[in-house]
């Protein structure tokens, strides 16, 4: 079967590997679509620090592609939740023609209104959903989404669906701001322009109540803190990999009583959901309900779809192109 990997720094490859039969608790799935997580995959491909074990560089070869969908082909003898022929969303998988995850990481699609394209967005979509839950947003509170890559675009749509008013999107890229407005943002601003924080505070009557910070850079967090209302809550979804940036914690956090919440997707319960803290499976099921009932539209956010045969060229673009599209998928039927 074909599989996309990062063989070394700045070296994507499409390789051939054997298809592995499922063990007792595993499911063999023929992949339909896999979604690129631009920030994480760029960091791994380019050899950034704070992505590998212990915060170092990645250990190559690296295989990613953790948000996928497909059709079940075989199941292990202990598997009960899915059967051959079922359409499924998968998590913590790979950009590969076949995936063999454990049963826990396979979620059956029970509603025909959910496409396999949408299902391949479910895992990555639950990252901002978890961050939103952690802010404890109340209906009618304002939310700022700082950074409008794939996670930020999903965060905007989810904030609107959850009742945030207004939803303010921020990114220097005008194309991404337009995407956010199309995806339910009430306002979209360039955070590098003079007076950004003041503009946000005027719109919200003194500052935003909640924020999902997903720029991945220290300057983004500093700008977000300047926009907060007293006692505001900031979910740190973006992976700020540079540990050397500085924050005036006394003026920006301590005095206004701001809550900073670690919102890495791994910082969630593994087995049992509770208010504000859902498992991956339960978040994926929540997204499936929202999509099926037309409350949110994830599929419309897909900007490009490619054959895996073009994967090396796609990843070379990801390395060089600062305007790489926010949502890109591989269609594994195009092999």
Describe the structure.
The chain has 335 residues and is α/β, with parallel strands linked by helices. It contains ten helices and 15 strands. The strands form three sheets. Strands 3, 4, 5, 6, 7, 14 and 15 form a seven-stranded mixed beta sheet that branches. A six-stranded parallel beta sheet has the order 10-9-8-11-12-13, sandwiched between helices. Strands 1-2 form a two-stranded antiparallel ribbon. Helix 3 packs across helix 4 and helix 3 packs across helix 9. The longest helix has 14 residues. The chain is globular and about 55 Å long. It starts with a strand and ends with a strand.
Q: Layout of SSEs?
A:
Elements: E1 2-8, E2 11-16, E3 27-35, H1 38-46, E4 67-75, E5 87-91, E6 98-99, E7 106-108, H2 116-119, H3 122-135, E8 143-146, H4 150-161, E9 167-170, H5 174-182, E10 187-189, H6 196-204, E11 208-213, H7 218-226, E12 228-236, H8 249-254, E13 259-262, H9 280-292, E14 304-306, H10 311-320, E15 328-331
Parallel strand pairs: 8-9, 8-11, 9-10, 11-12, 12-13, 14-15
Antiparallel strand pairs: 1-2, 3-4, 3-6, 3-15, 4-5, 5-7
Short overview:
This protein has 335 residues and is an alpha/beta fold. It is 28% helix and 23% strand.
Q: Give the low-pLDDT segments.
A: none
Distance between the termini: 10 Å
Query: Tell me, what's the shape?
Result: globular
Beta-strand share of residues: 15-25%
Number of helices: 10
The share of residues in helices is: 25-40%
Average residue-wise pLDDT: 95
- Write down the Rg: 20 Å
Number of strands: 15
Structural class: alpha/beta
Return the string of H and E elements.
EEEHEEEEHHEHEHEHEHEHEHEHE
Describe the sheet with the most strands: 7 strands, mixed
């Amino acid at each position: 079967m074909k599989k996309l990997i990062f063989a070394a720094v700045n070296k994507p490859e499409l390789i051939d590997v054997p298809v592995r039969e499922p063990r007792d608790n595993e499911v063999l799935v023929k992949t339909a679509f896999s979604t690129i997580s631009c920030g994480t995959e760029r960091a791994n491909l380019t050899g950034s620090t704070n992505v590998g074990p212990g915060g170092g560089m990645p250990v190559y070869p690296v295989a990613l592609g953790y948000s996928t969908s497909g059709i079940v082909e075989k199941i292990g003898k202990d598997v009960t939740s899915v059967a051959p022929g079922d359409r499924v969303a998968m998590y913590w998988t790979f950009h590969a023609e076949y995936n063999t995850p454990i049963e826990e990481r396979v979620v059956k699609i029970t509603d025909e209104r959910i496409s396999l394209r949408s299902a391949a967005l479910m895992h990555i979509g639950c990252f901002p959903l978890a961050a939103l839950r952690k802010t404890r947003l109340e209906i009618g509170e304002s939310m700022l989404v700082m950074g409008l890559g794939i996670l930020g675009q999903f965060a905007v749509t989810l904030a609107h669906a959850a009742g945030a008013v207004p939803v303010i999107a921020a990114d220097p890229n005008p194309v991404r701001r337009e995407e956010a407005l199309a995806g339910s943002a009430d306002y979209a601003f360039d955070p590098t322009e003079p007076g950004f924080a003041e503009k946000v505070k005027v719109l919200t009557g003194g500052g935003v109540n909640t924020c999902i910070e997903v720029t991945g850079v220290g300057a983004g967090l500093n700008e977000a803190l300047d926009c907060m209302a007293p006692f505001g809550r900031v979910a740190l979804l973006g992976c700020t990999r540079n540990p050397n940036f500085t924050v005036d914690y006394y003026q920006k956090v301590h005095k206004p009583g701001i809550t900073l919440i670690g919102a890495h997707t791994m910082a969630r319960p593994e087995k049992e959901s509770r208010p504000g803290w859902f498992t991956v499976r339960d978040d994926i099921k929540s997204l499936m309900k929202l999509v099926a009932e037309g409350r949110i539209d994830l599929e419309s956010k897909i900007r490009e779809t490619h054959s895996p045969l073009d994967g090396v060229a796609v990843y070379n673009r990801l390395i060089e192109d600062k305007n790489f599209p926010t949502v890109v998928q591989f269609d594994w039927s195009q092999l």
